[in-house]
Amino acid sequence: MPHPMSARFGRLLIAVAGLALAGPTVAEDSPAVGLPLEEQIQVCAACHGADGNSPQPGTPSLAGQPALTITNQMIYFRERLRQNDLMTPMARGLSDAEIQALAAWYADQPLETPDEEPDAELMGKGQELANQHRCASCHRADFSGHEQMPRLAHQREDYLEQAMLAYREHTRGGPDTTMIEVMREISDDEIQALAHYLAHWEE
Amino acid sequence: MLTLPSSRPTLSHLALAISAAGLLTLPLLATSASAEEQQPAWAQGRSAELAESPLAPHATPLTVTAPDDIPIDDLRMPDGFNAEIWAHGMSGARMMALGDEGTVFVGTRGIGRVYAVTDNGDERQHVIVAEGLTQPNGVAFKDGSLYVAAINRILRYDDIETALANGEVPEPEELTEAFGLPDDQHHGWKFLAFGPDDRLYIPVGAPCNGCEVDPDTHASIHSFAADGSDMRVEAHGVRNSVGFDFHPETGELWFTDNNQDWVGEHGPNDELNRLSESGANFGFPYCHGLGVIDPALGDASSCDGVDLPAATFDPHSAPLGMRFYTGEMFPEEYRNAIFIARRGSWNRSLSAGYDVQVAKIAENGERAGLSPFMVGFLDASENTFSGRPVDVLQMPDGALLVSDEQNGAIYRISYTTPDYVE
User: Fold this and answer.
1) Which residues of A touch B137 (CB under 8 A)?
2) What residue in A sits closest to B43 (Cα-Cα)?
3) Which among B39, B110, B128 has the least Cβ separation from residue A181?
4) I want to staple B288 with a disulfide (CB 3.0 to 4.6 A). Which of B54, B168, B176, B292 is the partner?
5) Residue ranges making up the domain that contains A75
6) What is the pTM of this model?
7) Which residues are noted in the entry as heme c 2-binding (chain A) (predicted)?
């Protein structure tokens, strides 16, 4: 099938369907669409750090994430299946292949370990909670993640906390409801301990 | 002992023998209520002994497979049949419906899209009709309109093929309130098909792996007038049907049903059922497969009055979309047989399914015998798979389309009489 032509046709219909289904939102392409990979990475770097280690509170590090984790979340943003006012405009119009190339690059970047000393009490409580909730059964024993399940070890603590709260409060949507079930009825203190433990995880 | 036709007679007989002897002592429901609540939906019913089990649903790719990487060469069929890639690039392609002008509409789950595939005679093109929906699995076509069923919405796109020909998509009519269906995520993705009575048939799965349900709202197949009025419950005790069709001569509803996870790797069997009478009961959650009494919720009388399957499949093999074959292209033996796509298992160590089966109906019209029709996606020696068939669709020329959710592709199976046949 003649690819460029069908892509243009598809784009037109997406815009029309978007109008019909989602109100006045007109789909505009991400500034990263069509750029070479190294320039796309610079677009992401503004928030996620030049090497995928995020310097920005509330913004996740992408370095060392499984490629499928990044791919799936980017597609959820692109398809407006995960509501996020910052990321959906960044993902609109990116092709599957562009997203997969970005994901593969970030998966290969080393994730830095946090500088500060962990709090022993929070670490103990967090470990107990991680066992109790069987986090390792999906996220792996070293919390390095696997396929669509993200790496948790050494992720930014503030981001982990924010993500778990959003799952509990049902404000983080998306087709995969697994974490909403897991986070049901968990307390703020427990989330804080889990986030601290995972951010500072040591073998 | 009953002897029913089955693709795996030894397994189904084993399940019968076990249940008849009352020896079905499987670890079940040993977890505490709170731990149960905090598990992912797919892990409901997993016993404490199996807490470290590596079994979990296989993630469905949200991306497309490049045409050169689509595993078409893996496929094997009986002599004379040939499979080709008919369309590709529709990530997550699942249920299919045929428009009057030949458009094939395709539903999805995770990617949230509905596609329209058109054929100009030489090649196929596709466009995205809808996006951002919550698992719009069900598609049906009637009187120029496309009906779409997402988990939480029913939409109707009028005169859609006319609009598509002009490069447009019509604004959908929102029928969600008129149908008033539950919007549970768990088993909430819906199949759609119009019956010979012009009513729209919609299953509502159990909102759980195994649990007691309100028999009038869940684990049932409903029918409606096309505008969502006049609801009837056609079948009860159906855990999660994601495919059905109507017998070309009797008009009877035949449907697939996916049975419970975590009860056992080798049971209960998945089902092909025949609805002989509106309102019949198919057993869930008390009686599974060929009369397996639920170890937690059932008792000795649980299978009394239950309609048993017309045929059974390997446990957990996930028979989904199915269609009766009425075309002229395939040999006579396939007339009024049912082609059934099996998406393939996750809740057993040795995988099963990932193929298309054919069910040939017995002379009494009540039972069916299964045999493999399109195989090769499952590599049994490596316990790996390369594709996941979800639906089948007969085309006007008698060819059979098969959708592959894993690769975002649709295959066309055609038949040419082999040279050696006179």
Assistant:
1) none
2) A178
3) B39
4) B292
5) 42-111
6) 0.88
7) 135, 138-139, 179
